[in-house]
Records
---
Amino acid sequence: MSKDCQFCGTSVTLPNKGALVINRKNVDVEQQSELLIDYQDDDTMVFQYTTMSNLVTTLELLRKRNTSNFWLHILNLDTKQSFPISIDHLYERLKHPELASIIHNGSFTSHLQPIVDMQTNEVFGYESLLRTTEQSVNPGELFSYAQQSGLQSMLDQKARRSAVKAKSDHLAKGQKIFINFLPSTIYVPEFCLKHTFQIVREFQIEPEDLVFEVVETEKVSDVDHLKRILDTYKASGMKVALDDVGTGYSTLEMLSLLEPDYLKVDRSFIRNCHIDKENQEFLYQVMERAEMIGITVLAEGIETIEEWTWLHQLGVDLGQGYFIGKPQAVPEKEFILP
């Protein structure tokens, strides 16, 4: 099991008084003279701290000559419990404790952006977009920090809970909700997705109303692993989508292998599609491939009536973008074509 599994759904709080337990091979001999070592043997060195300031000072000394991101254990001197963490993750949490607190506490809400059936003009569903409640923090900044601090699994899981709750609070049965997820936070799909399935049961949501899509910033290197994740979602009755088609998932072979229920065409191919011949050629290819495999096509980033009209005439199934509606805490219930 990966070391990162410890962060999945577990609130990790740094003890105010504790000790760092480090493998001696990660500290060079010269550096050892600079550090206040409380205990050491042939394999281990222990550094106690009584304040966060002490901890920061020790970490800065440890990082001064070490360029590698090694792992250590933090020991709570009161409870005698410990947990592993990388030195870089620990340092990031100490630098921005307010962001770590937002993630730990799950201080989120979900804004919903409408997705419309382009042939009937009816609202088909909504995409859930994460927002913070206590502080105005850019979601991109929060996800970037989560990756740097080792909290991406926790953030991804709590974002899913917020999205399912929004579905329960605002959407009718049968309306889909599209939920982004990070494949890199799911190590063993059958185990890691149990929490998601529990949330679905808790809020009594029909599984087929949930569409899980690969988040746009995620760089997928293991396609077979991604297929196992998508297959696990589908085996539970949920739907899956590939985001940003055209920037990594545009080949017929890839779509045939992963067999998503939906594909979302990257907004760069939607922009000025009514006049851009290269974008039009790409969209023709996407529609042809999707029809061959039986995949529903969603065009994201529609911003003008001209783009909407051209895509409608092309036969694109679903549309999303500011022309249709912006993300809102309480979603719009219908779309009226201007």
---
Amino acid sequence: MRYELHGIISRPEVLDPIVEACRHARPVLLDGAELAMVPLCDEVYRTINLPGFQVDPENGFDRLSSGVAALITAASRRGAIAYLEADYDGGASRQVAAVWLDCQIVYGPNMLVPGEGIPTDGTSPFCEALRYLGVQAVGRVDEVVVLGLGRYNRTEAWCAAGTRA
């Protein structure tokens, strides 16, 4: 089964500047924590994909454009904020994550490349990034499952589930 995700995750008040800057952004509350995600669906990406902010092209991200990075960096003044991307299709998988705080990257970008496999010991880029946001694994359930990031298997489905205050 295919799974792909492009999303910005933090506390709702940290995400507020992103939601205010992009009328298409629809935050979705996540399970087991006081966190929300702004899914970076096509419409949101086109709105905030702006020039003027340099991002290393070899960081492994597909949608971490200059505009996305600028909004995340600015919002990180309010608290830690993570950007996650994943694409799984059968045996091939890619997972990339980074976390910003106080306008600095404090984690990543960290990437699993196709064929590397997702570690089951909590060292995947997603799990490590989510710990920066205060998410904790519960027993054998990792941070990704605790937040319910498997609720939908496509970014566009997350966008459809989001709400606008």
---
Amino acid sequence: MHPKEWISVRDAGIYCHPADAYIDPLEPVSRAIITHGHADHARPGHHCVVSTKATLDIMRVRYGEEMAKDAVALKYGEDYQLGEDADPVKLTLYPAGHILGSAQVKLSYRGNSIIFAGDYKRRHDPTCEPFAVTPCDVFVTEATFALPVFTHPPLKDEIQKLLHSLDTFPERCHLVGVYALGKCQRVLYGLRQLGYSKPVYLHGALLNLCALYREYGHNFGELIPVSEVANKKSLAGEIVLAPPSALNDRWSRKLPNVRTAMASGWMQIRARSKQRQAELPLIISDHCDWPELLRTVKEVDAPEVWVTHGREEALIHQIEKMGIRAKALSLLGYEDTEETG
């Protein structure tokens, strides 16, 4: 049975009828399958959440007891049955390479399968399991950076830009905007990989998730909360990581002679870097760029691809040129791409 007969889009999000489960629902539901811990995919208040253990731990850090009434932690590659015993849906999670605990959701039912890749990337990242190419009948891919203009440089090149700026402006505090989950840890890894051994200073909003990453065996060297630095002038010539929202607020004004940087795939677009008021744009993404999206579609080799989360038209056009059936997930029910997060 083709997935279009048992997958639909409701107000709460993507719904699997025979499993009575939603994938990354937009509002509280009875059963939610969560691809990863970013807030636009992992919302609180569900009755039951099914995900990887790491994603469940991320949700507990962020939401506490409001995460869900019940939770099921699955290992990568472990089969789990949903729905009626006589006619079950098989759920299997595979690594997505996006952030810690991120997973592709594979649902198999009556001889056909669909994979919801969620957010994913193909670059090497030791802070999470690498993307696993997995056969399926329908592959649902994101399209965040699905335009040919997006070709992300190597992580080490962007981290080297930051270190070069630090050498050039040793009297300035380098304040880098990073998202607390995934981007922060990837920047820390990149700094340590290039031999930066000094302490890195963190905004308080980044501490809990860095501590969770440590529990999963990831060592980022010495990290010091900015709140523990009595003399903020001593942060001249140091690297401080903070959420993007803190780059230009009252908190950042306490720092000496700030040089503002922003780590994001969107920094490839000059207008976006100006919008963030980033003197030093760092093109660091936790998503695939254009060549990697096309590579992934080719390697998965599914006969049909559904596209969501962004630049649908360009990617659909290119996939069809590859001889693969493709359609926007919006054609299956979404009226606004913002509904996909």
---
Amino acid sequence: MKRKIAKYVSECDVCQKVKVDHLKPMGMLQPLAVLAWKWEDIHMDFIVGLPRTQKGYDSIWVIIDRFTKSAHFIPVKTIYHAKTYAELYIARIVSLHGVPQTITSDRGSLFVSRFWKHLQTALGTNLIHSSAYHPQTSGQVERVNQILEDMLRACALTYSTKWDECLLLAEFAYNNSYQKSLEMAPFEALYGRRCRTPLNWSELGELVTFGLDLVTQGEEQVKLIHSHLKRAQSRQKSYSDKRRRPLVFQKGNQVYLRVSPMKGVHRFGVKGKLAPRYIGPFKITEQCGSVAYRLVWPSHLAAVHDVFHVSQLKKCLKVLKKVIELDLTYEEQPIKILDQKQRSTRQRTINFYKVQWSNHSEEEATWEQEEYLQTKYPGFLPSTSNEYVLIVLKSKLI
């Protein structure tokens, strides 16, 4: 009997929607492939909600090279259109590093706009977006955002809201900081030599190379960076997978979807403290990548993106048969006015009518305001007081 009860509870539709999970998150870490050259794949993200500067900047556009980890921090305004961002992209990225092969980002309004997609298609760049409600495309860009915010907080203690004047120095400091995964600074990984700064002006000296020696040294350094990134990526995956559990779905499986994957996002029509944790079940139509799935979406959720990360899904152990819903409700209609009274306030006089409803006797009549009856049931109330008296007398005679 205990086994039957446990099986019944595990397959209960209400329990699967309501009960909280105390297990490890689902889905093993799927790191992005390590590239072979510099500025071929870049990450983009925004830091928003910053204090508005004198020039009107209130956000930072962070663009990072995945291979060398070198970054550019561009101050922007939230009111910019996609065309303005395109001009900044050409001036600050393409003019310095060329056109990248791929751009990885979340599903922000800029990155999914038609203008941005057409621009990158014309340039020959492939756009890679995160799955819906799971914007963890790469921890690298989130870590860079955290570092930049910490530096700006330190600058704000002295320069207050003039953080845009410190942004170039913050970019210089970041690109010349030692990276554990590279085992060198991003500046050195990008240009093949350490940057000359006032801190080590006398220690460095000039690195003189001629002819093919420069090319050979650059290729050797790229191979070294590639091996370092492979080793760091393998180490990060082993650490992350210890706190996760694998889960794979097949086409046609039924799954539940977490109602609120992230705080402050679309609630799928369900909200409140006692709202269920999952909705569904929904059918899986295809697998998009290694850890994302496309669901069959009902018509009232057509505006929501239908691809979700495996961590936001839960397997449906038993699909319930279609339940026939019986409509036991009926609409009440007023049929008779039994009495009238007035209630006076300081500003106006409110009329009340005692109304008998269909399917109810006179003992169950209710008092309703005149405004409610005129709005809900136009034409039911009498137009004059004489007409009302005739109606009341007629009802009493009947």
